[in-house]
Amino acid sequence: MDPVTRTRTTPLPLRQDGPLAVNTNVSSTAFFDRIQNDRALAIRLLIAIVAVVLVCAAVAVTYTVRSNAASAALSDAMQVMDTPVSTPDQPVPPSTKSFGSTAERARAAAGQFGAIADKYGMTPAGRNARYLQAVSTLEAGDKGAAEPLLKKSADSANRDVATLSEMALAGLYHDTGRDAMAVDTYKKVVSKPSVLVPAGLARLDLAALYESTGKSADAKKIYAEIKDKDPKSAAAEIATQKLSGAPAQ
Questions:
Q1: Is residue 16 scored above 60 in pLDDT?
Q2: What's the distance, CA 186 to chain centroid?
Q3: Each residue of 53-92: pLDDT tens digit?
Q4: Which of 42, 117, 124, 221 is positioned for an S-S bond with 130, CB 3.0–4.6 A?
Q5: Where residue 12 falls among pLDDT bands split at 50, 70, 90?
Q6: pTM for this entry
Q7: Residue 51 has pLDDT above 80, yes or no
Q8: Can you tell me the distance from the alpha carbon of 212 to that of 210, in angstroms, rounded to the nearest whole number?
Q9: In contact, 209 and 182? CB cutoff 8 Å
Q10: CB 147 within 8 Å of CB 172
């Protein structure tokens, strides 16, 4: 007698060890059969899926709202840097908002940028604000306070912000007599550049540092590398002028 092919016509027995218990050794067909025959389980799964979708949507909306608020606040803070400075030689009309010095203006801007970075640090505008806080603090003349801010900004997930901060940090190291650290930082940018800070720009600054410390041979070596690695770049044009002894334009 030919073997009889058995066709399942009754639901699979439900497991009793929990409403969502799933035996990973059974086929996906068995799992879906279970859902079809357990209305309560199907409803719970549907509710869970809807809840996840709603949470994701809420997170996306919240992030968008915060990003927009951060961008607006950053725009306002940027206007502080455009506020005129009133001096005895160049006074401004009494009705015009002004600052008594560039340092005073920079401190005011740094305060606003810092508040934005603290409140919206996870947004693109918040990350930009941290970098601008550091730069403004530098402009205000407070190198000690600027350094940890630059280091924090250099750890940004945004590589453009990170490399801008690293370049400023390298300049700060050089200004404070820590040339070895400056060289290492420039080389770090060279090895991992960004769109806003290409490797050629970091190489130029490194070469300039070598020139300023009397290491002309090291500087010329870097200029030659720039010409060889990226001959059509603006950095290569400057490097060519430096090698020829002509003043850079």
A1: no
A2: 18
A3: 767 777 676 667 777 888 888 889 889 988 998 888 888 8
A4: 117
A5: very low
A6: 0.72
A7: no
A8: 5
A9: yes
A10: yes
Number of Cα atoms under 13 Å in the Cβ half of residue 4 = 3
CA dihedral 84, 162, 235, 242 (to 10 degrees): 80
Mean pLDDT of the chain: 82
Closest CA to 182 of 204, 198, 206, 165: 206
Three-state secondary-structure class, residue 103? helix
Give me the amino acid identity at 47.
I
Sign of CA dihedral 69, 72, 74, 76: negative
Task: Count Cα atoms within 13 angstroms, Cβ side, for 73.
Answer: 27
Segments of 81-202 assigned E as strands: none
Residue type (1 letter), 191: S
Maximum Cα interatomic distance, the chain, rounded to a whole number of Å: 114
Residues 15-21: contacts with CB under 8 Å, at least 24 apart:
19/44, 20/44
Query: For 30-56, what is the mean pLDDT?
Result: 67
Pick the CATH number of 158-249 from 3.20.20.140, 1.10.3720.10, 1.10.357.10, 1.25.40.10: 1.25.40.10
Residue pLDDT, tens place only, 131-143: 999 999 999 999 9
Strand partners, 85: 99
